[in-house]
Amino acid sequence: MTTRQEIFDVIKGNIKEILENVKEEDITEEQTLKNLGADSLEIVEVVSRSMKQLKIKVSRTELAQLKNLGELVSLFEKYKDKG
Hints:
Blueprint: H1 4-18, H2 40-54, H3 60-64, H4 69-82
């Protein structure tokens, strides 16, 4: 079973790789990718890479409703637990 922290670490790693100017301490569950400076393509890239690494698929409808990184972690956690 994958823990919440492990899921967040995967997402954080992808954020650092794609948004090179973002400091690690700025990446919190309360933040949004947009507030971290990501454009729409970078947001898709972070989410897609994270889903691939975690071996999950989440619908665009569910992703569109998310307000911050914490909600993204919770959603991924839900799908990981189903798997």
